[in-house]
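Schema walk-through. Below, the input block comes first and the output block second. Nothing else is stored per chain. Lengths vary across the set, and this one has 111 residues.
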Amino acid sequence: MGKDRSALPPTAQAWVEARARYQLSHAQVQIGRELGLNPRKLGKVANHRQEPWKAPLPQFIEQLYLKRFGRERPQTVMPAEKWGRPGTGAEGGAERCHDERPQRALNVRLP
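--- output ---
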């Protein structure tokens, strides 16, 4: 049937649930994550149609991203289901082994 969502890390799973609940696109979910928004608190800023002065949540997230980063969309968009998997690129750099880091040059004076 569907994919097993329990295999996702808790943070990615929270964003997947928020995407379904608030009808967000993959790009808007990634924008929210880059802005540091908490997916469990999106209901506070979501427009429930009783508050006409608020912008709808997808447009609100995009406006915040444009204001902070100066561009409308991320350069590459990756679905939340692939965030925590090794080798997918999003967090693969953070999961590198200590041995793979480049070594610093020693402070040695040459004649």
